[in-house]
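Hi support team,

I've been running sequence recovery on a batch of backbones for a student project. Most finish fine, but this one hangs at about 90% for roughly twenty minutes before it completes. I'm not sure whether the input is malformed or the queue is just slow. I've pasted the structure tokens below so you can try to reproduce it. Let me know if you need the job ID as well.

Thanks,
M.K.
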């Protein structure tokens, strides 16, 4: 979208002498006339904030309220030829339904005010909108389903409000979207399936809500996505391997899921993560990676099933543009840290509070790997890594051993054995 220059008129711009004054439009704006400090000709003009705006010729309006607190008057709906409207600093009260009369708008920015109430359904009339920014207000209620009428939208920002309810499925109609910001609300339910079909998305920010469910394989459709955040929700389950299709990705934020209840990201970091060579930030801290089944506690560890390994894949070393890797506090990530982690020499690496075993890779830079025995916080380092065959034995289904015996690797065979006898023979 071409850059545009907008007229800005502060209240302090009023002339001291009470006289008719024509304000010459700024360069590049040829169809806006504003008259100040006189009675408006209501046949052709509308009075807003003590100024007269020509209904026919006013096409762009960028009004800064200069810190005064006022409401958006319903008369704004008379400026039917507006294509761009920005109101800022500081508007309060509700968004008037008359905003829906401005059907020529392509740009509507009411962000960073103190607007309250619900988003009016009349917003669905603005079918030519390319940018809608209502962020950083105090809007409540649900996102109206008529938002799906705005099929020309490129950017939709409703972040930093108090919106509730589910994300409407109609948002999947907005196929031209490159940016969708719904963070810092109180949205619930699952992410609608249609979101994963918005293949032009470059920014998808859903963090700090109350969303639930799992990431589906269809996330791999978002091949143009650069920034993705679901931090501090209740989204859990495994990371689908299709994430490896998202080759444009630079930021992947899915940390601190405990804020959303007892749903966490679990299982493995898929080896396909190594395809994401543009990745700069991978934040998966405070989840339960390394645990296959979690319900308040780890019911099944990855080391106890063939469904996952619980280990950090060596392909992590492909992410040579990584600046931040945060895997702290997953508790159940285990096994050896791959030597390839030393390829990430420009990254800030945080691996604390997991179950990685010794020895740790000796990289030419420092990384944080303290507290690998999370059940015993006094211990700084993890235990020695077990033999590979010992790990394999732990995953074999077997009948109960006789009393006093355990099942494991003994004399290079997976079998039941008496650990006391085994210890005596080794000594």
């Amino acid at each position: 979208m071409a850059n545009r220059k907008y007229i800005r008129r502060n209240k302090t711009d009023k002339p001291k002498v009470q006289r008719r004054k024509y304000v010459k439009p700024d360069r590049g704006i040829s169809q806006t006339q504003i008259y100040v400090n006189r009675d408006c000709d209501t046949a052709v003009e509308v009075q807003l904030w003590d100024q007269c705006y020509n209904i026919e010729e006013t096409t762009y309006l960028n009004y800064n309220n200069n810190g005064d607190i006022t409401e958006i008057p319903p008369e704004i709906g008379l400026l039917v030829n507006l294509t761009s409207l920005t109101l800022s600093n500081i508007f309060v009260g509700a968004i008037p339904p008359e905003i829906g009369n401005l059907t020529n708008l392509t740009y509507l920015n009411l962000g960073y005010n103190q607007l309250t109430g619900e988003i009016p359904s009349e917003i669905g009339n603005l079918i030519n909108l390319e940018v809608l920014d209502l962020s950083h207000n105090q809007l409540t209620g649900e996102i109206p389903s008529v938002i799906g009428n705005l099929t020309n939208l490129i950017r939709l920002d409703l972040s930093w409000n108090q919106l509730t309810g589910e994300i409407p499925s109609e948002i999947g109609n907005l196929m031209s979207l490159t940016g969708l910001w719904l963070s810092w609300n109180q949205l619930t339910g699952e992410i609608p399936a249609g979101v994963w079909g918005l293949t032009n998305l470059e920014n998808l920010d859903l963090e700090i809500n109350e969303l639930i469910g799992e990431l589906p394989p269809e996330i791999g459709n978002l091949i143009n996505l650069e920034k993705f955040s679901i931090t501090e929700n209740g989204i859990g389950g495994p990371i689908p391997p299709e994430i490896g299709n998202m080759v444009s990705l630079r930021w992947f934020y899915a940390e601190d899921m405990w804020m959303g209840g007892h749903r966490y990201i679990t299982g493995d970091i898929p080896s396909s993560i190594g395809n994401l060579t543009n990745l700069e930030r991978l934040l998966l801290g405070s989840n339960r990676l390394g645990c296959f089944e979690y319900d308040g506690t780890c019911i099944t560890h990855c080391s106890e099933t063939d469904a996952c390994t619980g280990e950090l894949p060596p392909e992590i070393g492909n992410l040579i543009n990584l600046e931040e890797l945060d895997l702290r506090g997953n508790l159940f990530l285990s096994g050896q840290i791959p030597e390839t982690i030393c390829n990430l020499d420009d990254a800030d690496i945080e691996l604390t509070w997991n179950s990685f075993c010794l020895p740790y890779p000796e990289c030419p830079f420092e990384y944080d790997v303290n507290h690998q025995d999370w059940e015993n916080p006094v211990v700084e380092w993890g235990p020695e890594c077990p033999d590979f065959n010992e790990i394999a034995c732990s995953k074999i289904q077997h009948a109960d051993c006789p009393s006093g015996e355990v099942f494991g690797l003994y004399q290079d065979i997976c079998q039941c054995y008496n650990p006391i006898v085994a210890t005596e023979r080794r000594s």
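--
Follow-up from support: It reproduced on our side and the slowdown came from queue contention, not your input. The first helix runs from residue 388 to 394. No action needed from you.
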